[in-house]
Design goal:
247 residues; alpha/beta; two-stranded antiparallel ribbon
Length: 247
């Protein structure tokens, strides 16, 4: 290493230390200041509940009461447009973290989440052979107010981890829909009707991977999938950070 390179390296280390003093690393689970950036603190190790092997083969939800079954009750009753999907965590164990990620500006959590998804689900996701990642878009006005789209941040980080190209502007949400957490399953379907359109027809994908933060009933994934398939995408899969356990 030359004297100039040593000087630059030393300056960067000093800069990193100063940044850590001003913005100390925080645990992605509890948000307390921690010693190691991008990792959960010792108190939170073991508290995060990963979706285990007994999961629905369609939507990835944990199988409750029928661990030997193939599909969850929701997927038995409703025909989804996506082929398959997986979620990393059971929602209850990561709820507070997801809330901060969405509403409190903790965009840096995306790096931790994407590494965890790649570590625990990467092999399965790669086996799907998706040729593009599509983050679930936010309504533009809502995104301007919030300042960012958490699904976009997660998709960008995951695309880098998995080596899959991200197309953030391929699908647009043109309807300012009500928050999905306020609605039941039937209301979600009505709420999302004609909410998404494809803006880019120059991109030809065979199999798309939709990325979002939470999977509940699948309404959002289905409506984004419908827009993509109408534009020529043959198959749609998805991955989310967390999933609920109910129908």
């Amino acid at each position: 290493m030359t004297k100039g390179e040593k000087l630059i390296f030393g300056m960067k280390k000093t800069q990193d230390r100063l940044l850590e003093l001003i913005f100390p690393p925080r645990c992605p689970s509890c948000d307390r200041v921690t010693k190691t950036a991008g990792k959960v603190c010792e108190e939170c190790v073991g508290k995060l509940c990963y979706v285990k092997e007994a999961h629905c083969m369609r939507c990835g939800k944990p199988m409750i009461g029928d661990e030997d079954g193939e599909f969850c009750e929701d997927c038995k009753k409703h025909k989804h447009l996506f082929t398959r999907g997986r979620s990393l965590y059971e929602y209850a164990s990561i709820r507070d973290s997801v809330y901060r990620f969405k509403y409190s500006g903790r965009k840096e959590y995306a790096d931790f989440y994407s590494r965890e998804i790649a570590l625990h689900l990467g092999r399965e996701i790669r086996s799907w052979e998706c040729d593009g990642i599509i983050p679930v878009p936010m309504y533009r006005g809502k995104e301007r107010v919030r300042g960012y789209n958490q699904a976009r941040w997660l998709a960008d980080a995951l695309g880098e981890e998995l080596g899959i190209k991200v197309y953030p502007d391929m699908v647009e949400r043109i309807v300012n829909t009500r928050p999905m957490k306020e609605l039941n399953a039937a209301q979600r379907q009505i709420n999302l009707k004609n909410a998404f359109i494809v803006r880019r027809y120059d991109v030809k994908l065979c199999r798309a991977l939709i990325v979002d933060d939470i999977y509940t009933t699948g309404s959002t994934i289905d409506h984004v999938a419908a827009a993509l398939m109408a534009a020529g995408v043959k198959e749609v899969c998805f991955v989310t950070l967390a999933t609920g356990t109910g129908v």
